[in-house]
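My main concern about presentation is that the manuscript never shows what a single data entry looks like. For the editor and my fellow referees, an illustration may be useful. For illustration, here is how one protein appears when written out as sequence plus structure tokens:

***
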Amino acid sequence: MTDTAPHRRPTIMEVARLADVSHQTVSRFFRAPDGLKPATKARVQAAVDQLNYRPNLVARSMRTRRTGRLAVVVPTLAYSPARMLAGASAAAHAAGYAVEVLALEGGAGERTERVAELADSGQVDGIVSFAPVLASLELQASSGTPIVASADFDDEMRGIGELADASALVDLIRGLAERGHRRFLHITGDLQFASARARRDTYLEAIAALGLESTGVIEGDWSAESGMAAVRGLPERDRATAVMAANDLVAAGAIRAAMDRGWRVPDDLSVTGWDDQQLGRLMSPALTSVEVDLEGLGSRAMTRLIAALRGERAPTEAQQIHRVIWRESTGPAPD
């Protein structure tokens, strides 16, 4: 006979016994772990993992008048925030919180009102917004519910802030110059986007600062087709030996057009992308690209919110979210 009875949920007392600590210590582990000794935290974490224990958010809400839930507001338009959401959710769950995801329509003004209403409703303990809102520091609701706005998009969901940082392009250009490249071409993204304009401007500044030559800046639209069109229009002679594409799709189009013209990548032409998409890693040649740590961006926003909930100082160390990943699509300049 098969036992179909549901498994009983482990209790905080069982975690305490297994870890050989008090139940108050286990409670502090979920509320304010920084106050515990590393060895104590390790024992409690091991017990939590072994028992598959999860805090009882309903009971905690009744005792503390907190819900144990945090809200994450995401954009409803072009940009997919899935990776930022994954990072934020992981940080919240590690701190013992559940996460509710809300997609709020309308402009920044309307969205700001909705976020303030949510904060005052008592339904959540805190809010992180990845969608644009107005004057984030003035969003403190009358209830005192903390709100963190991660200002990485404008109201058209175009990347700004850290997402528009183009400094990794300097690393790409410098690395290619060390491989002997002197003539470069940049294919931009849609210049309505701050990130596309930043990469164009950084490209031109880096070329000038390093004493290199730009054979042109061709305006694209983030699509593979724009990369193909740009490379199809290059001259046979006196052309660039390195193409800096606005993203991985543009780079894939550039590589396809180079192959159609009988040019070998990277022997005849080096190509770089941006975003480090999985498809680029699987291409032949595998694409040199810029990794964007979206998970880290989401995790840091959530960490700031949790610090506010605990009355702690949020971490202030700056972390670079862009990193160059060198692969097969780049090599020495042709002779």
User: Anything to note?
Assistant: The first strand starts at residue 69 and ends at 74. Residues 267 and 334 are 6 Å apart (CA to CA).
